[in-house]
Automatic annotation (TrEMBL):
Keyword Kinase: no
Family per similarity comment: Belongs to the ABC transporter superfamily.
Species, as recorded: Microlunatus parietis
Protein name per its UniProtKB record: ABC-type polysaccharide/polyol phosphate transport system ATPase subunit
GO cellular component: membrane
């Protein structure tokens, strides 16, 4: 994966539905109808095969935007992204699932959406379902799931689709201890076979534990790239947060 001078600007209009009068007044004053948010500014990095890349930074730093762009969901405003292989994303858990369908039906949908053939999906479906340990809930509509249960389903779908590139955005935060342990083991296994893994997390402990490299974003700019330990330390210094066991998580 190679990202070169990537910039992404969101354009949002002020009013949901401007009236003609409002538009004319604004035009008369020379005001613009859209507000621009520069979510990423000239970000460049290359990720060699076998890398598990952690992405850290404050709220609004551009982490999810970067993931969405790398997953091909969001087009760059400028710059380029080269992806080698098929990316499987686990962005904003449960998004993409249909809450009125059962877990099992969503597994099929998720597999097809990830680009697998119907045959491949059907072969995988039982394993995916079993991995979730959802029991009878797997045949219940997803609206009856807790957020942790949806997370388990989302994670299971994403990791079983044999991705070349695995992207995980805060996936583990909603799971319970048993699920987190299982998910960590699965990710370690995938790291061996996937070409690259990206993990966005505010849990700096997990970044240090699971990643081989890290990047730190601040206000859309790439501040630093390096060993997870180094990058996390620099970020914490920047935040002037005292380093202690209790603050390593959830920043
Ligand atoms: N759909 C959108 N329309 C307009 N602005 C957006 C949109 N999505 C994100 N932004 C803005 O882009 C910037 C980066 O947001 P992004 O979600 O990438 O940050 P983040 O680092 O993932 O934050 P968090 O840690 O809170 O999840 C923010 O200023 C945000 O307000």
């Amino acid at each position: 994966m190679k990202v070169e001078e990537l910039s992404i600007t969101y354009k949002t209009s002020f009013e949901r539905k401007p009236t003609l009068k409002q538009a004319l007044i604004r035009f008369g004053r020379g005001q613009r109808a859209v507000k621009e948010v520069k979510a990423l500014r000239d970000v460049s990095f290359e990720v060699p095969t076998g890398t598990a890349m952690g992405i850290i930074g404050a709220n609004g730093a551009g982490k999810s935007t970067l993931m969405r762009a790398m997953a091909g969901i969001l087009p760059p405003s400028s710059g380029t992204i080269e992806v080698w292989g098929r990316a499987s994303t686990l962005l904003a858990l449960g998004v993409g699932f249909n809450k009125d369908l059962t877990g099992r039906e969503n597994i099929i949908l998720g597999g097809l959406a990830a680009g697998l053939s119907r045959k491949e999906v059907e072969e995988q479906a039982d394993d995916v379902a079993e991995w979730t340990e959802l029991g009878d809930f797997i045949d219940m509509p997803m609206r009856t799931y807790s957020s942790g249960m949806s997370a388990r389903l989302g994670f299971s779908v994403a990791v079983h689709m044999k991705p070349d590139i695995l992207m995980i955005d805060e996936a583990l935060s909603t799971g319970d201890a048993h699920f987190r342990e299982k998910a960590n083991a699965k990710m370690a296994e995938l790291r061996e076979s996937a070409r690259a893994m990206f993990l966005v997390s505010h849990g700096l402990g997990s970044i240090k534990e699971m990643c081989t490299e890290a990047i730190w974003l601040d206000k859309g700019k790439l501040m630093m790239r390096g060993e997870p330990e180094e990058v996390v330390d620099a970020y914490m210094k920047f935040l002037k947060v005292k380093k202690s066991a209790t603050t390593t998580e959830d920043i």
